[in-house]
Amino acid sequence: MFIVTIDEDQCSGCNACTEGCPAHLLGFSEDKAHVVGDESECMGCESCTSVCPTGAISIAEM
Ligand code: SF4
Ligand code: SF4
Questions:
Q1: Residues of the domain holding 44
Q2: Where is the 4Fe-4S ferredoxin-type domain (predicted)?
């Protein structure tokens, strides 16, 4: 089980991460990415972290 979190202070608003999430957990509003679904539904695929230029996204295995 994985938990995804986004540090909005680190998010630069590039919107590179939101489209690629297979679990549709990432949304974009007010120039920042946000976790919009149940963060515990993260699959740990790292497609979001791999495209984030600022390291704002963290995936933790529980
Ligand atoms: S690791 Fe994969 S499933 Fe989890 S939030 Fe990122 S893109 Fe979505
Ligand atoms: S890829 Fe990183 S910097 Fe870009 S919108 Fe997503 S969290 Fe923010």
A1: 2-61
A2: 2-31, 32-62
Counted domains in the chain: 1
**CATH number of the domain enclosing 50:** 3.30.70.20
What's the confidence (pLDDT) of residue 37? 87
What's the 41 CA to ligand 1 centre distance in angstroms?
Answer: 9
Residue 16 CA to ligand 1 center (angstroms) comes to: 12
The pTM of this model reads 0.94
Mutate to test the pocket of ligand 1, among 4, 35, 57 (most ligand atoms within 8 A of CB): 4
pLDDT digits 0-9 by tens, 12-23: 999 999 999 999
First-to-final CA distance of the chain: 5
> How close is the Cα of 49 to the center of ligand 1, in Å?
8
